[in-house]
Amino acid sequence: MPHRSDRAHPRDYLVEGETWPTGKLRADAGPSATAAQELANRLNNALAKQPKSSRSARHLAAAAGLSPATLSKIRNGKCWCDIDTLARLEHTLNTRLWGNKHRRT
Predict the structure, then answer these.
(1) Are 79 and 6 in contact, with CB atoms under 8 Å apart?
(2) 94 — alpha (psi -120 to 50), left (phi > 0) or beta?
(3) According to the model, what pLDDT value does residue 87 have?
(4) Which of 21, 24, 62, 91 is deepest in the core (most CB within 10 A)?
């Protein structure tokens, strides 16, 4: 398995011309890229549903104990979200971000 820094980012699996996080992924993307895309979509949707006073990404990052840069990278598909960060975001937003699209049915 490649070292994390050598691994492609989730958005690198987009079909050429598509945009993150709603664009179509390449056939070789695999379940982790699908999960990262679903996470970014759910995160963006949850953030949009927050009260106006706490809707900013900077506010969410601070409340979750994350740097704004980390949150930005997750939302933009430029990094792989770890379980600790996922748990912090779910707890702070009081919503489920980890979905099912990446699982086989």
Answers:
(1) no
(2) left
(3) 96
(4) 21
User: Reduced to 3 states, what is the DSSP secondary structure of residue 86?
Assistant: helix
d(CA 85, CA 49): 20
- The answer to whether the peptide bond before residue 21 is cis (omega within 30 degrees of 0) is yes
Reported confidence tier of residue 85, pLDDT bands at 50, 70, 90: very high
Judging by beta carbons within 10 Å of its beta carbon (0-12, 13-18, 19+), is residue 88 exposed, middle or buried?
Answer: middle
The answer to whether residues 33 and 25 touch, using CB atoms and an 8 Å cutoff, is: yes
Q: Tens of pLDDT along 42-79? A: 999 999 998 887 789 999 999 999 999 999 999 999 99
Written as one letter, the residue type at 26 is R
Domains for the chain: give ranges and CATH numbers.
4-93 (1.10.260)
Q: What pLDDT shows up at residue 7? A: 87
Which residue, 105, 99, 88, is CA-closest to 32?
A: 99
CA distance 7 to 59: 30
